[in-house]
Amino acid sequence: RKEVLQRLTAAFCKSQADQNIIYTEVRYAPHLLCKEGSTLPDPETVVQVVTEEISAALKARPKYHLNQILCCVNLSPEWSEEVCQLGQKYHGQHGGVVGIDIACGEDHFSDDKTFQVHRAALKKAKSSGLGLTVHAGENGAGENVVLAAFEYQADRIGHGYHILEQTDSLPKFKPEAGGLHAPVHFEVCPSSSIASGSVPNPHTTGWDDPDHPLRRLISEDGLSVSISTDDPTIFSCTLASELTLVVEKLGVTKEQIWAMMSNAVNFSWAASSHKQDMEIQLLEYFEALLADAGKVEAPDA
Predict the structure, then answer these.
(1) Angle between the 112-127 and 80-90 helix axes, to the nearest 10 degrees?
(2) Residue range 265-276, pLDDT digits in tens
(3) CB-based burial of residue 256 (10 Å sphere; 0-12 exposed, 13-18 middle, 19+ buried)?
(4) Rounded distance between C-alpha atoms, residue 81 and residue 211, angstroms
(5) What do you get for the CA distance between the two ends of the chain, in Å?
(6) Cβ neighbours around 105 below 10 Å, total
(7) Cα distances (angstroms) measured from residue 151 to each of 61, 154, 286
(8) Which residues are 225's β-sheet partners?
(9) Which of 35, 130, 243, 262 minimizes the number of CB atoms within 10 Å of its CB?
(10) Which among 141, 134, 126, 224 has a CA at the least distance from the CA of 184?
């Protein structure tokens, strides 16, 4: 129902502001939220409602910024063309669409027909200026991460833990000699990956395993990584709780958190002016945080 989606969108925007999260990219699959004959009869109505609610929320809270990522669905490639068309239509609007994702599983990587349909749609989306992120290497093979990055041309990878098994391919995800930035970014979601079985459960195996995928992916030199929440409602987490988890359980340092936050800003699809503002706020925050330790130089990101 339209009024339910309006209420949920408004509540989400308020929740992000209440947590003082100054920039958010929220993702959802519009085809999964519509039903013929209802007040949300088609995917475009869903995107329109969400966009209107986000825009209204941002006008009421000008300090915060929030954009959308629309999801194509793993084994429903027939939706992908429309998803990407909607992304293009609502791109550039206040609180509008900035990127496209493929979510809900990784079977499409091994089915050539499905893969080609998704790829054709994503190619059009990218050529129109939309960003691309693809769920890969979560519960699927590391090779899926390679396909997502270099066949789908994804800018970012959702999860990606199993790329660590692809030792020959791992250097492709790091900066070239003399380069400053990695070519692809990894969106790491600790609580989600543990709950879904994407990585071994350290609650039972112990948190001190030096080879645990979460620790290795975060600590691997040259990779661009940041911390995300995946679905906060399902996994009962917040961005603050996820950051606390990796600091307290994995020994991630404040300098590493700063680097990951900077990576997140760099690979976000925020407007350039918003990116500049966020970098300034990060610099001011971490300089103050680390001042007592005598180390205030910005880390490499």
Answers:
(1) 10
(2) 999 999 999 999
(3) middle
(4) 40
(5) 43
(6) 14
(7) 39, 8, 37
(8) 186
(9) 35
(10) 224
**Mind listing the pLDDT tens digit for each residue in 205-235?**
889 988 899 999 999 999 999 999 999 999 9
Provide Rg for the chain, Cα atoms: 19
- How far apart are the C-alpha atoms of 114 and 78, rounded to whole Å? 9
- With 90 as the cut, is the pLDDT of residue 180 above it? no
User: Which helix (H) or strand (E) element contains residue 135?
Assistant: strand 131-136
CB 40 within 8 A of CB 46: yes
Give the Cα separation of 96 and 271 in Å (integer).
Answer: 12
The model's pLDDT over 246-291, given as tens digits with 9 standing for 90+, comes to 999 999 999 999 999 999 999 999 999 999 999 999 999 998 988 8
Sheet holding 156-159, edge to edge: 23-28, 65-73, 97-103, 131-136, 156-159, 185-188, 224-227
- Between the CA of residue 84 and those of 40, 79, 81, what are the distances in Å? 19, 9, 5
Length of the chain: 301
How many C-beta atoms lie closer than 10 Å to residue 197's C-beta? 10
In the numeric block, which tokens belong to residue 286? 């971490």
Distances (CA, A) of 239 to 191, 199, 228, 229, 299: 11, 19, 6, 6, 21
Element (H, E) at 136: strand 131-136
CA distance 243 to 1: 35
Sign, Cα dihedral of 80, 156, 193, 27 = negative
Residue 5: both structure tokens together: 């989606």
- Report the distance separating Cα 64 and Cα 59, nearest Å: 9
Distance between CA atoms of 109 and 96, rounded to whole angstroms?
28
User: In 10 A of CB 72, how many CB atoms?
Assistant: 27
CB atoms within 10 A of CB 78: 11
Do 100 and 125 meet the contact criterion of CB atoms below 8 Å apart? yes
Q: Is 110 left (phi over 0), alpha (psi -120 to 50) or beta?
A: alpha
Tokens found for residue 222: 């040259």
